[in-house]
Amino acid sequence: MGSERFGSFGLATPPARRAIPADEAIALLKSGAAKPGSLIGYGNGRSYGDSCQNDAGMVVDMRPLNRIRSFNAETGVIEADAGVLLCDIIVHAAPYGFFPAVVPGTQFVTLGGAIANDVHGKNHHRRGTFGCHVESLTLLRSDGRIHRCSDTENARLFRATIGGLGLTGLILSASIRLMRVPSLDIVEKATRFRDLGEFFDLAGAADQANEYAVAWIDQLAGGHARGRGLLFTGNHAEHGSHATLQAGGRLSVAVQPPFNVLNRPFLTVFNAAYRWKKGRSSDARHAGYQGFFFPLDGIRDWNRLYGPHGFFQHQSVVPEADARRTVPALLEAARRAGQGSFLTVLKRFGDVRSPALLSFPRPGYTLTLDFPNRGERTLELLAELDHITVEAGGAVNPYKDARMEPETFAASFPQWQRLEALRDPAFMSSFWARTAKKLSVRRDIAEAAE
After folding, report:
1. What are the domain boundaries of the chain?
2. FAD-binding PCMH-type domain: which residues (predicted)?
3. Cα–Cα distance between 130 and 177 in angstroms, integer?
4. 186-404 adopts what CATH topology?
5. What is the pLDDT of residues 197-216, one digit of tens each?
6. pTM of the predicted protein model
7. What are 390-409's pLDDT values in tens digits?
């Protein structure tokens, strides 16, 4: 199978060299013929880095496994194949008054990918991560067996697979609990804040009063306007529509421009216009669910705007007690480096614990920044952001990453060895080889030297 369409969404890493369809991978695993480190599942390619790549092996195209198997309109439990897209689940469940309890920033992720990355949304303070709503899953491993996993059956494997970056085997299907909503529409409110101090003063109360809360930061603003932005809050409208819209907008970036369109002059104008348009009124307004949850889905292939070298996304989380010092330090580091971020998002994580062995969200504040790939200059900035995050006791998101050092990963996820112990030998990703595998080799050398 051609591998040209099996790239990372950030476009800063090469696409997969080899890809095979799911049925071939299933046959390999069931026969026990899968070679060590030869496979990694590939959903819809919305991971930003190399966690969905396997330079030394093959990626497995999971998109043909796209059947919704059952849906209970009373409980909201839906069972579907791992390759089903989130937008298809929304369309199937909406007429019955249900919506996924957790959605990330795009509806074009697969069910298996959402589980493997334990994705989060704008309501972590109330609903936790996607993994909190997984009832059970089926997992095919290189022992040739299909393992049914839940909180009571194969529980260790269940917890390792949620947030396990696809390393415990091939997720074939899963059952998840959706939440009942009065409508798909959102009552949205935008509140301006002058600086980050004012945002932090608002954030806790916003979480308590609303299902959804997220802030946009004007990362390029300097002087007295430094740290300004908009705090968006939302709740499902009591009286609104249950009708779904066609997934994906009419606009698209049909060809890749030869240069980065999202440069500093463009971002300066865009940020000013966005702040004026979204923040001109503090009155509550009805918003469609796609515009509220998935605004960038309205432009197909928008990642191409970064040009042929792609972009890096950096997402960190820092403890709440240190956030007022660390978040400004992260933004200041980007400003000093002269790097403008097209998407700068800040939100508060709550204390709802995920069942996952490895899960990025934890209590505190998470900051997301996008930077065009300018080579070594950008890599140096990202390393500085890693250092600031780790020094504060925080973590860097692995499924948004394409270059973090093994030490950063170990500091972010000190329990990584527990996942390595449950990793299926046939599964390996470029991310895991770059981080955990190197850590394992160093540990083995150190132990041998003692």
Report:
1. 186-404
2. 1-181
3. 10
4. Alpha-Beta Plaits (3.30.70)
5. 999 999 999 999 999 999 99
6. 0.95
7. 999 999 999 999 999 999 99
